[in-house]
Amino acid sequence: MKIYLAGPEVFFPDADELGARKKQICDQYGFTGLFPLDTQIEPAATASATGFLISHENEQLIQACDLVIANLTPFRGASADVGTVYEIGLARGMGKPIHGYTNDPELYHSRLNALFGSGTEQPQGQLRDRDGLKIEEFDLRDNLMIDGGIHAGGGHFIAAQKKAAITETAAFEEVLIRLSR
Predict the structure, then answer these.
(1) Which of 50, 56, 73, 161 is the most buried (most CB within 10 A)?
(2) pTM value?
């Protein structure tokens, strides 16, 4: 079974090593990991053309996989990496099972409130950000569409018990353990 390994690890200086480690863990459980950097892209004439090539190749990897496991640990803000979210949405639209994990046990509304909240509770106890916009309070790990898509497809969304580095693999491995049962 081929698993597309979505997540922001591709942005890290040691991205190749992180991908290799996750692929090795997949092997331990009888799966084949497909990491976004597995494809070799020759730079195109422009940066945007190179970006489009990478996007196309990643979509091809998702098409070739049986399911997706996404690192949904908050990245550059209160929520998961936007590219990773696109990839799980694409996989869901293709009817592929999606699973996720986060190394931040804090609920989404708590992270939003900590980063952008006004610091005061609004009428009827609703949380609002500094601009007066409602903060969704559904006791979910991320935006309701992310959690909802994983849940609707029967996927697992594992949260670490305590906050860990974005590259920590214990929650990722827990998803694999559940899939191998």
Answers:
(1) 73
(2) 0.95
